[in-house]
Design goal:
heterodimer; A: about 260 residues; alpha/beta; Glutaconate Coenzyme A-transferase; 8-stranded mixed sheet; B: about 350 residues; globular
Amino acid sequence: MEFTRQEMMAIATGREIRDGDLCIFGVGLSMLAGYFALAYHAPNAISMTEGGVYGSMPVGGLPWGIEDNRISANATCFTNAIDALGFLCSSGRVDLGIIGAAQVDKYGNVNTTGFWTDPASPHFGPPKTRLNGSGGANDIGSGCKRLVIMMAHEMKRFAEKVDYITTPGYLDGGNSREKYNFKGGGPVAIVTTLGILRPEPVTKEFMLDSYYSFSSIEEVKANTTWDLKISPNVGITPEPTAGELEALRSVDVTGMLKKK
Amino acid sequence: MPNKLIGLKDAVSKFTRDGIKYASGAALPVGSDSIVFGREMVRQGRRNIHYFAHCNNQQVNLLCALGVCNKVEGGFSGLEVYGFANGFRRAVQAGTVLYEDYSNLTMPLRFFGAAMGWPFVPTISNIGTDIQFRSAFNPDEYPCKSKIPEIKDPFTGKICGALPVAKPELASIHVTMADVLGNAIVLGTEWCRYELARAADKVVLQADFIVDTACMLQYPNMVRIPDLLVEAVVPWQLGVWPQCSVGIYDSDEEHMFLMNKMLGSEEGALEYKAKYVDSWNTHEEYLAVIGKDKIDKIMNNPTTHLMDPYRKWIKTDEEIASLMKESKFAQPAEPVSAS
């Protein structure tokens, strides 16, 4: 079966979810990756949104937001932000979070806030390009046991140093994250349109762990600013099965991931 | 407890002023927000608002695009799947609005702290990142130590952050339904409306439906904002448009995109103001601007069953008009001439 790069990315992201996980999905494509897993291999995983919408499966396609009617139509519980992002997420109870990113660095730090002409300047002036800010991403990245970052793999997005750390990855690498006593363990994978990166256990620098049948190590390296190390066990990510694609498309009713 | 119904114009003129510390509430960018209250602030020419924007929504987008606010603090600044908020973005990039970043957990925590009367709120979120180290309000302090100062847990010696509390002078809060006394029920996520209603000095509700108090007597657990917190209640059906009010109407997809596109330029924002903010005076005219076909479309959505238990208590337009006359805010009748 044919599939798009976006569908491969969503399925590879969804495979990070284990049956029984308590999961929190960011808005947009990461939500499709999450609901795909629930529809396919993780029927006992539990989804929640940072708005405190629990137990629901979206109807009518990708929700416009994490509180809209498509996701509120069949919820079993509505609460609030402090409950979802605080009691459940910041406290360390959530097993897995999925977020998107505009820019990421080699330690898995995420920027979704903006781009500056001179990001290193001590003066924090208006951004050249303002993005969305954290939303719940910072809280999800601090609190979830496992964080998965899902994003398009382009040179400008894979920076040596991000313009602004919105969501903590491993900060300066090594054990620098430990200083802050976050309850969450940090990012376990950056799943992109070209492959999957995972952190080296000691340095926490992200390395290429696997690439797709349609990409290559060279293509991944050519689209990464830092000198990307390759895992000694690097291999090809298994292609989506017919069953996986069918499940993903049943969730992606409006075809958001079918765009080439 | 008195009847607190008030008209939209009167509520904005009575409870807002230039330079006020204002919050609106509060679901997320697509969900419930007191958007028509913001439209009326634009109509009345408010300026220099310091906006506590809980998360983000089209009200923030509109108020930034039209120069109503000059400082905004919030947890998110996009419109979710509808894209970047173009009016907001234009103002922030131009430097006409200073935007102080927090996150979607720490904004509600800041309201929680204000509601408790605490001096600050300890946090293990936002620390170690540029949300802590960069401040738009103190742009030359780097790494910033005054925005979310690093403190030590006095018990363990571990590091955490101290969030400043957020105490707006006024919160305008959208609720699905309220009675005339100000008891309110929200459907869908309440996001941070519970904390916000207790953090602000004054609370004005914007309600899609006015219901009989008998509804609250039946479902008191659902009343998360009680009358004792509320100054006034503005009845305004479809006041969240073009966003959604769970249980009643969906977001207006076409207008969400159109509004955001228009707010992306100065000329477009002025055209938007003329067409969709200044073009109506009454609620009837406001509904005509949305259009009957569009209203029928957004009312037909998969959440309407959530409203079913409450329908029998909904007041009609005629009943609301009559109740308005009995409100503590009702204009006194013309004095009868002695002659």
